[in-house]
C-alpha cells in the first residue's frame, strides 16, 4: 500500500499557480466554445484559423500560411487538402516559382466569410468581457508568445 504524499508547501508547484495550465485549460475552453459555432460553418477550429488568414490574405503561399499560423507543412497540408476537397480553396503552383504553392479561395470560400462574421460576435457575448479588456488580453498573449519564440 502506497503512502499518501505529504502536502506540497511550495506554491510554485501548485497546479493552479501554473501559467502553462491556465493557458492550456483556457485554450481547451475556448476551442469548446468555438466548436458549435464552427460546426454550423462546416469547419474545425484549425480550418477556421486557415480561413481567417486566407480571408485576410488570399493567394499567399503555403509557407507564408504556415508561418502565420505557427504550423509546419506536415500539419498544414492535410488541413489544406480537406478544405480543397470541401470546395473552399485551391492550391496552385506559382507561375513565378514552380516550387511555391499558393492558396486561393474559391467563390464558396469567399462566400463563407459572410457567414463567419457572426462568430466573433458570439464569442464576445459568451465571454462577457468588455472589448477593450479582451483587446488588451489578446495583445498581452501576443507579447508573451513573442517572448517565448525568441
What does this structure look like?
The chain has two domains: 41-116, Arc Repressor Mutant, subunit A, CATH 1.10.10.10; 117-150. The chain contains seven helices and two strands. Strands 1-2 form a two-stranded antiparallel ribbon. With 150 residues, the protein is mostly helical.
Helices and strands in order:
Blueprint: H1 19-39, H2 45-56, H3 62-69, H4 73-85, E1 89-93, E2 101-105, H5 107-116, H6 118-127, H7 131-148
Antiparallel strand pairs: 1-2
Order of helices and strands: HHHHEEHHH
Q: Tell me what portion of residues adopts beta-strand conformation.
A: 5-15%
How many β-strands, per DSSP? Answer: 2
Q: What is the subunit arrangement here?
A: single chain
How far apart are the termini? 47 Å
Q: Estimate percent helicity.
A: 55-70%
The average pLDDT is: 93
Segments where pLDDT lies below 50 for 5+ residues?
none
User: Can you list the strand order of the major beta sheet?
Assistant: 1-2
What's the CATH class of the largest domain, please? Mainly Alpha
Main sheet makeup: 2 strands, antiparallel
CATH superfamily of the largest domain: Winged helix-like DNA-binding domain superfamily/Winged helix DNA-binding domain
Provide the number of structural domains: 2
What form results from the Cα inertia axes? globular
Radius of gyration of CA atoms, rounded to a whole number: 20 Å
How is the CATH topology of the largest domain named? Answer: Arc Repressor Mutant, subunit A
Q: Provide a count of the helices.
A: 7
CATH architecture call of the largest domain = Orthogonal Bundle
Instruction: Kindly name the structural category.
Output: mainly alpha
